[in-house]
Amino acid sequence: LDTLEKWVTEIFSEIPNNGLPKPSFGHLTQPFDTPEFHKLYRVVPIRKIHSLNITWALPPQEQHYRVKPLHYISWLVGHEGKGSVLSFLRKKFWALALYGGNGETGFEQNSTYSNFSISVTLTDEGYKHFYEVAHVVLQYVKMLQKRGPDKRQKMLFCFFLLYRIWEEIQKIEANEFHYQEQTDPVDYVESLCENMQLFQKEDFLTGDQLLFEYKPEV
To answer: Where in the sequence is the domain holding 100, given as residue range(s)?
Structure first.
């Protein structure tokens, strides 16, 4: 650490500090408030695949990094067990895979907005019924919204309480963090520098991976 500190001091100490505050774009919270965003777009793929992608533009969520609400929702949406939306679509022979989430990158999550997407890989039969597939996905999200992450209520697709599900996600992420393989040092430093712009000091090392707080209202 002493050697690293010496190098950093030698290389960066001459860079002037202009004393300006970090720029904020939090007042620009409607980047997709256009008629073009509320439409169905058909894109011809290069390879033979049918994919349905549904994207929501949400208020910025990066300040909730200790809760990670979008990660929590993506876990519920991506569940593949009995009663899940994917299980239902597979029984209809409409879908092969389904996943949802937010990449937590600058494009998908920043101080202006956050994106949340659900992608469904369709069968040939599912492509013929993609309107029904979209309806099923939206109804599932509506069910999650209606029931809410209440500790006392059970979801239809699982016997666990939602708080238990949150704890399960928290433990899995903690295990992956503690037993992760060593990464390239340069990539790791770059990642930490990005984290320093987003998280509190005590969370520089863990803010992008761990879940800290269970807040149903968020």
So the answer is: 52-217
Residue 22 forms part of a structural domain: no
Q: What is the pTM of this model?
A: 0.81
Domain count, the chain: 1
Please check whether residue 32 lies inside any domain of the structure: no
Closest to 218 (Cα-Cα) out of 108, 67, 58: 67
Question: Which range, of 59-73, 104-118, 133-147, 195-209, averages the lowest pLDDT?
Answer: 104-118
Side-chain half-sphere CA neighbours of 78 within 13 A: 16
Looking up residue 213, the CATH number of its domain turns out to be 3.30.830.10
